[in-house]
Each structure stands twice: as structure tokens, then as C-alpha cells.
Amino acid sequence: MRLLEERIRTSGRVKEGGILKVDSFLNHQMDITLFEQMADEFWRLYGSDGVTKILTIEASGIGIAVLVGQKFKCPVIFAKKTKTKNIDGAVYTSKVESFTHGQVYDIIVSKDFLHASDRVLIIDDFLANGAALSGLAELVSAAGATLVGAGIAIEKAFQPGGEQLRARGIRIESLARIKSMGPDGAIEFC
């Protein structure tokens, strides 16, 4: 998606440790007009696949997922990183290691919201090592639901997650695939 690539070029910043800072439009301050266009693109890619639920992980994927859910006219579920008092009953759970935070989370989704009859589209802001996407896919599998695929805003194609998950048979459509990020801030797209 050229529009997203251009926004990354103009507003993104490469930080030490392979971090791409896009908080001015994607994962802190959210550009809703851009998100609407991203949702349109995910609809173009997955609109004929019978999606009944959108699944993401808190927190950065929620904004994009909500607009995608609106486009698909279906509920959005977000996997929580901590079990709170207001989640009672049975849950699906998986472990996820966060590349950005350097921490392992137990992610959870209530069994009330994810069912074997669901056709699930996972939406997230980033794909790097693939831990979040893999954990979300495990939740879908645990529910006996069908994983239609994953819609990713930005994929760091130079990290192994995307190729490993594609090798497992997961359909992944990334709107911007980054081939490399230089220490000088240069970003090359696939």
C-alpha cells in the first residue's frame, strides 16, 4: 500500500535495535483517515472470505481492528495481556513474547466470544518475529475456529516471523513490507 509506505518514509523514524517508531500516526496517535484506507484494503484482500470475527491483541492493534470490523460488519475481539476481575469463566490462553517490550505475556480471550463456527481474521500493527501472530493463531485453533488469515499494517520482512508463519500455511497480507532499515534512518521496502 503506497500510501502507508509514504507515511512511514515521511513520519517514521528508525531507532537503535531495529525499532521503527511510527507513533505519530499508527500506534500512539492514530490517523483515522489512514486507518479507514487500510480497512478498505483489508476488505479488498479478505472481503470474500466470510469473516465473522476480527481478532487482535491489546493495545496497538485495536484501533486498526475496530475500523476493519466496521468494514466487515462483524465483532472485534482483542486478546488481553492480563486477566482482570471482569473476565469470569473459561478462557483460551497462549504465551506471547513482545519484541518491543522484551516481556512474555499470557494472552487471553474469553470462550464466550470465540467459537468453532467463527471465521477469524487477525489484524495487527506490526509483524516482526511473529510471536503475537503465532499466539493469536493458537487462540483461534484452541477454539476450533477457522483462521482466514492475518492483515498486518507493517511487516519487518528482514525478521523471520512472516516467512515462518507463511511456511505454517497462514495467509498473511501486509500493507507495507520493509526489506531493510539502515542506521541512517533509510527504509527500503520489498
What is the CATH architecture assignment? Answer: 3-Layer(aba) Sandwich
What is the end-to-end distance? 11 Å
- Overall average residue pLDDT: 93
Give the biggest sheet.
6 strands, mixed
Approximately how much beta-strand content do the residues carry?
25-35%
Describe it.
This protein is of the alpha/beta class. The protein has one domain (about 1-190): Rossmann fold (3-Layer(aba) Sandwich). The chain has five helices and ten strands, in the order H-E-E-H-E-H-E-E-E-E-H-E-H-E-E. The strands form three sheets. It has a six-stranded mixed β-sheet with strand order 4-3-7-8-9-10, with helices on both faces. Strands 1-2 form a two-stranded antiparallel sheet. Strands 5-6 form a two-stranded antiparallel sheet. The longest helix has 15 residues, at about 30-45. It is globular. The mean pLDDT is about 95.
